[in-house]
Amino acid sequence: MALDFVQWFIIAILLITPILYELSNTFKYLAKFALFYSIVMVSAFIIIFPALLRPKDVNNYKYTAWVVNNLMSIFGIKREVRNREYLESDKPFIVVCNHQSSLDVIGKD
Question: How far is the C-alpha of 91 from the C-alpha of 40, rounded, in Å?
Fold first, then answer.
């Protein structure tokens, strides 16, 4: 049974990926980033169903916060919060992020 081009290509990718991961910091960063976004997308798809059972409930964010916090610990993402005393109040507040990235949503703990 001979292997066709697609099978050889998959074998080559599976052999080259671990080598690139160990040798290239850029590849390591991009691989982790792609895996993080993939997990976030799948999690968002799953989380939407319990949220649909309670529409307009502000506590729906707790599912997402739980997933994101666990992903952050798995991937070793650390956050830095400056001027935390302004956030520790019972009054509502708005968080304005200074980057155009989906990683900004993990700024609030």
Answer: 30
